[in-house]
Write a structure and sequence with these properties.
Number of domains of chain A: 1
Structural class of chain A: alpha+beta
Largest sheet of chain B: 7 strands, mixed
Order of helices and strands of chain A: EHEEHEH
Radius of gyration of chain B: 25 Å
CATH architecture of chain A: 2-Layer Sandwich
Strand order of the largest sheet of chain A: 2-3-1-4
Strand order of the largest sheet of chain B: 5-4-19-18-17-6-7
CATH class of chain A: Alpha Beta
Largest sheet of chain A: 4 strands, antiparallel
Bound molecules: iron/sulfur cluster
Oligomer: heterodimer
Structural class of chain B: alpha/beta
Number of strands of chain B: 29
Chain lengths: 82, 800
Amino acid sequence: MPIGGFIITCAPEDLTAALEGIAAFPAVEVHGTDEKGSIVVVMDTETSEAMDDIVKTISRLPAILSVGLAYLNTEDEIGDEA
Amino acid sequence: MGVSRRDFLKQVAAATAASYVGMSLATTPASTAHAAGQAQKWVRGTCRLCGTGCRVELGVKNGKAVALRGVPKSRTSMGYLCMKGMLFHKLIGNQPDRLTRPLYRAKKSEPFQEISWDRALDIAAKEFADAIKANGNDAVAYYGSGQALTEETYLFQKIMRGGLQTNNVEGNPRLCMASAVGGYVTSMGADEPIGGYANVEKASCFFIIGSNMSECHPVFFRRVMRRKLDNPDFVKVINADPRVSATSRIADSHMQFRPGTDLAMLNAMAQVILEEGLQDDEFINNYCTFRIGKESKQVDLSSYRKFLEAYTPEKAAAICGGNITAKSIRQAARWFAKSNGTLSCWTMGINQRRRGVWANNLIHNLHMITGQLCKEGADSLSLTGQPNACGGVREGGGLCHILPGHRLVAKEPLRNQMEDIWGFPRGRLPSKPGLHTMAMFKAVNEKKIKAIWVHCTNPAQTLPNVTPYREGMRSDDLFMVVTDIFPTRTTECANLILPGAFHFEKTGVYGCTERRSQLTPKAIDAPGEAMPEVWIAREWALRLAKLLNDPMIRQCVADFEGKEPDYALPKAIWDEYSQKATRGQDNDLRGATYELLKTMHDGVQWPAPTKEHAATGGTVMKFVKGFDPLADEHSENDLPYQFYGPAHPDKKLWVWLRPFQGAAEEPDADYPIYFSTGRIIDHWHTGTMTGRIPELIRGNPYSFVEINPKDAKAYGIRNRDMVEIESRRGKIVMPARIRSGPMEGMIFAYMHDMAEDRMVNKVCVDAFDPGSKQPEFKICACRIRRVSGPKRLSPVIVQL
Ligand code: SF4
């Protein structure tokens, strides 16, 4: 059950479209945005693989320039598998 | 607090991400936000953890620390804090396993007994006095810290050198900053950077090498990232490192070279600059000379050009491997040379090398030949790991070869100056530099050192190739005093543990990366019987004076006798240091009195000889007339820059001809993989503090090792498998994290774990730089094997 903190970047004029795209993923919470096109999100997924998939899918949305990981916690996941 | 652990982790994740882009979130960590509303008063000081020197305000309620917040007007941090900085206040005051009474045992196999301060100080004095009487002055030693207050380092070294007449005074900055000191002194004639953080907002090229500043100096990185994001095309970021880290995300070019080949790459950049005529001839003619060899023989520019022929980009790319190409070297050299202001930043990847001083020299070379110095946005800036490595240890006389105020022990006139200041007869101070860190602990092993005082650091975990040194520390042939706040791997080796006051439980100054001294006053009482270390040192000296029947030992503390330890005592020590010891030196701090520092949102950058200059924040750019009062005072000509540093008689910058030399231990058939270590954002050093903050230890409860996917495949290792890492010195086992961070053929392990089977320094090599004596923590050879699938692990925190 990893938790990740990400900075998603888009062009400032695409912010609304980007947020709409992100809203399709229930595992992704938006925590803040700024006028420069930065979106801070937290992902809470079942597995690292699921998180990777979401990151890849979001990265491919037309409005999104980049998805950068800033913080990742995978402790539970390690415990779960043991 | 009504917040689940997962909610907390989410807030941590969001706040960390937000800090990278300078975004303020409505939600701050629940515990902090909750407590913040309750503070009765806010006391301004400095973060206890890294060398960035962020300013904080501690919220106090009913004598307890309840919250922490940033100081928006601070020039070091502009209000931002990282997660560990935000949470360190949880350690202030009474923690369950805080050391609160003096503890003693005659033999290290015995349990500790609580004893009184009187008895503890008597024992400490008697053991040191006996060691000196039986084996001479150099049978005793002090090993301090870049986390001790300047007042503490200054007083301890004064007692050791002037009182006990030994220069066996060292500190853990030898393990992290010594090569930077060597680099600045040999290249620029004076220690510490010319500029500071203010250059970030003016720079148009960042050359970040051997530094994962995103995790190690997060708030400084935020400024660099903001500068890049605000000017994505105009500002170029080059990140040179064998490992792709969180820092690399903002890079236009990530130069991934084979560990230990940095010298070839840096020389090649210089070669391109001269080959393509990108050098600043006027700067070179006015300010630089070229030097080679141990004798610092002067040569000319054409010799330098000839020397660099061995480092064409093509030749260097062949040496460097990784993703380095002749094209990427040329591009980096052009960006570096042509930008309006280039700011280089580095940390341990450069300093913790067998040729760390040379690596520092070669970065400085690039700035000198391109004139990327002394102007806005341009600097060669070594980032400091610890909060007071610069202020206390480098400036306050905390290494075996330096006296306070950047004076060399070996120079008689400089010793005489300190003898006069301290009221000693000429000749009192020993002329021979003491033992550097690795030699000091070797001397412990050889039973030449009989008594050692370890203050605010953890050598039993941090020394490279730690196992044999730990054995020496555990021996009953050594009497060991440790001043600290929590049990550590080092208190396990002690005879006497003296409980010190923590940050904000005492008063004193920290000096951060950018030559800035900042005051942290006492805000709450230390728990139990814990005492400020300046009091401990003074009381110990008074007893030593009696036992050794030497009035000069008493002279060391004569001006401090009777002063209360919370404010008057550290103030008197700071006054002596700043008003007398730094007077006329390049780190002149006479203007930075406690009274003035208390009024500052941040602090004062030296030189600051007057209160008026100090009140402006001091010297933003050293050596520049009009900015640096000493540049005006020392001015010898009409040129705008005056390189008056004490180490260069010609008052010039020295461009060094330094050949490529690899790591001390390269991989071979038996140990085919490079082993490197470093930090993770949430933890600090050996985890003795951050490991006791529940939010931080839960987030990262143990170390793991990063393995490149290609290597993982070759060794049959999957994510989270347990992996054994073995070198010629020892082995450890930790979970694998498969990611393309480290380059192929290299692994990277996090260093904070104190579990016996995960202590990375059991594996590291203790080879060191012949100039700076700083060990090569960053590179050694190892082999790896999969031990098992994932295993449930528990965090380990040393208890008494
Ligand atoms: S960056 Fe360093 S000084 Fe600043 S808050 Fe974080 S740990 Fe403290």
